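Standup notes
- DV: blocked on the single-chain target, sequence here:
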Amino acid sequence: MRDPIDVLQDKTRELSQADVPIRWTRPPETPPDPLNVQPDASWPVWNRAQAPDLECHKECWVYGEVTLPGDICGLPVDGAELLIHVDGWVPFTLWIDGEEMFHESGNWHATGPIAAPLRRPAAAGQRLRLVVRQYPTA
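- DV (later): unblocked, structure below
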């Protein structure tokens, strides 16, 4: 029988590497009401590799949606707490379901992930709508 501490460490490692994929899209132009727009199927997919295409002092809005699975790494999602790790390399603001969750105020902060994850209750099948406004300043 394996040592219970080893089992817990293995599960911790597995969970820390778990990822619930998010499909990000970017409109061709900034919508008139960016926080209330519904992403269009014709918008191109956006990914982090496109960050060098951002223009200094020009807003870039991206939209993501994710539906939480019933379990992650075999552990049930219902009643769990999401720990959302944000990894932003330019100043940005993040809204989840219309609620502002994070606002980075200056370029000097934009050097890597935020120090502490954002916390949010989770439920299996829950749909999260993510909106990010990026605003490169350097």
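- Follow-up: Residues 17 and 73 are 10 Å apart (CA to CA).
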